[in-house]
Fold:
Amino acid sequence: MAVARGINILAGFVLAVVLAGSLGATGYGTYLFILATAQMLAMPSMMGLPALLTRQIAIYADAAQYAHIIGIVRWGLAIVLGAAALIAVGLGAALIARSPFGGPHLSTTYSICIVLFVLGTGLMSWASAILNGFRRPVWSSLPDGVIRPVTLLAAVVTFALLGQLTPAAAIGLHIVAILVAFFWAVLAAWRHCDFGTATPIRAKATYESAVWFSGLWPLFLTVAATTINGKLDMVMLGVLKSPGDVAVYGLAVQIAALVIVPQTILNTIVAPRIAAAGKTPNMSDLQKTLSSVCGASCLGALTVMIGLVFIGPPMIRLFFGPDFQTSYNLLILLSFGHVVVCAMGPAMIALNMLHQERHVAAIVVASGGANVLLNMVLIPTYGGMGAATATLITIIGLQVACAVTLYRIFRLKSWVPLRVPSALGDKEERAA
Structure:
């Protein structure tokens, strides 16, 4: 997982260097703005399906309920295709309504990109969630973590060398890379997942659509609000300020994401284990798991942040140039927020895996509303620093609320580091 994530980081960094150098601050900001807008529209269309698939497949696999696994896999595919079709119909209706007015060609191109982005992202996440549900975290992380960024980087470098790289071309190459990653994920799921004696295509399926839909809607609200929280700042910055401001802020966001790499790896591994452990009444092992993940991710986050404090200015100056130098202050502020998030542990993941997605949905929707208000107030006056401050306040409040909710319901402390007993052990452990 660490090697795969390292490849993802390296590919993403080189990609940012190539795009920023080829497109310039204005072109790079335009690319980030278009990408953030497409992601805001694409991610909620999956309706929280990856989390639901991971949880239910892990539960069904432990009980050897292969008919249920086949059922939810097919049902999930229908959800992805249906969501893409609905968005295509909605955008088509909007285009028809606006056709007498100017710019129809640009609107049509942009709408096609959104539909393809929605479809490709949904299919890739569907296949990756199947792998993760079967406790194949490494294989699950490869499509979006390695295959997509490496394919995108190769395509972008080729177009840059040919002098054909534009913001619109970069978005198109992004869609191609997503589809390549999807086909790879399907082949990996076919080879490495146990669907029982029959093949997934011919096997008998059992459907629990009512149960799955009841768990899907809260996850949909969570994913929608989380996506808004993660992308709204960049979109509003592009609307209220300039593409140059988006470029500077977007670079800080991308580099600051290095801080949460350890937590991302650990959360991917631990999610199906939490779902399986939640079926047993004894929560002591689950508490140890949460404490271990919290301690390891927090230590990793602090290490990365300290490194960024020292190497941030020369790295930005060397690879991106003086136009992006102001990203450093934003980078430090965002990195601090990510460290606090890691210190609170995998509370949101635990709540979703323990069938408490309604509580998560309520918390995330509330934080999304706060994020909108903070961005509207701070961005016009403070620009990128205002967007970073709004993000900092929102993500910390979100994680604290999830951690408190997890403790209130299950008495599980996600923020407690792993307690290492002394050589003699304490009285309570010796008695046990």
The longest helix spans residues 2-42.
